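Q: For a teaching handout, I want to show students what a protein-ligand complex looks like in token form. Below are the inputs, and the small molecule is magnesium ion. Please produce the holo structure.
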Amino acid sequence: MKKIAVCGKGGSGKSSLVALLANGLRERGYRVLVVDSDESNPGLYRLLGFDKRPEPLLELVGGKKKVFEAFSENPDFPRSVLTQEEIQVADIPGGYIVERDGIGLVCIGKILQSLEGCACPMGALSREFLKRLSLQEDEVALVDMEAGIEHFGRGVETSVDSVLAVTEPSFDSLELAEKISTLATEVGIESVWAILNKATSEEIALRLRGELEGKGIAVIGSIGYEPEIFQAGLEGRAVCSDKVEGDIESILDGLL
Ligand SMILES: Nc1ncnc2c1ncn2[C@@H]1O[C@H](COP(=O)(O)OP(=O)(O)OP(=O)(O)O)[C@@H](O)[C@H]1O
Ligand SMILES: [Mg+2]
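A: Here is the structure, written as tokens, with magnesium ion included.
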């Protein structure tokens, strides 16, 4: 069904929100594929309540050095599930996806060594995977993007339906939300929203909302600063909080 990219400034709360939205979607009966497209941070699997990370999809095409060749027209390059024109969730080999009650997690690839070269191949793989990913009516893909906006330059968003810009109360985060909104619109995405995160008071949330709306950015919802979310991040465990359930519900109402 829908492919949703969760973007924003470093530390704004993208991964925590991906986990909360995945749980909320699951409660509505959707099957969720979370795509970890962040090549640096290791811990999304923990926020989702998994005890191990899936093997990186990068390995399925033979590693970073092989990505561009894999998606070239070279007929001699060994075919893999990732180079199929359409990839169903069920096609992803065991080990490369971890699953629990209707939530699956795949990981594009992680930076492992110093001097291993730039991360462009991972961006290319994210783009090709999302383009080929074919979802059933009851499936949603949630993409945890790396911080910032470089992924727009790599075309990762070219086949997503919605972009969510997670915005925390800081000037830089607001500025980045505006940039994300512009870049997503340029790619042709119509469903572009900001989510306010970590506002410590109603007054700050209102101020943030006013500033975003003043920039022409629609705000789909707001999650306040919630100690339970912070604690889960601190301890590296599953994020869940009854206190924000209603806020997640209203974000999903707007999104779906
Ligand atoms: N609503 C919230 N209330 C309290 N703490 C929060 C909230 N959202 C996120 N946090 C905390 O903020 C920090 C950053 O969150 P998270 O890792 O989800 O951000 P991120 O945008 O994915 O970061 P990165 O750019 O490094 O991937 C963590 O300590 C997390 O627990
Ligand atoms: Mg993150």
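A: Two things your students might notice: The first strand starts at residue 2 and ends at 8. The two ends are 10 Å apart (CA to CA).
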